[in-house]
Amino acid sequence: MPALxxxxxxxxxxEDDAKQLAAARRLIxxxxxxxxxxxxxxxxxLELEWVLR
Length: 53
Description:
This protein is mainly α. Helices cover 66% and strands 0% of the residues. It is flat, with a radius of gyration of 11 Å.
């Protein structure tokens, strides 16, 4: 099960860098299309919350 990094989630949510957003979307879509679950560690969730403040 692939784990998502904070940077991937930040780019996906914030949409501040077109190139990195496209890469994040490709990664997430590929996993969804393949039926693979994505793991988001608690630390990544906490870091994402901090960045979004």
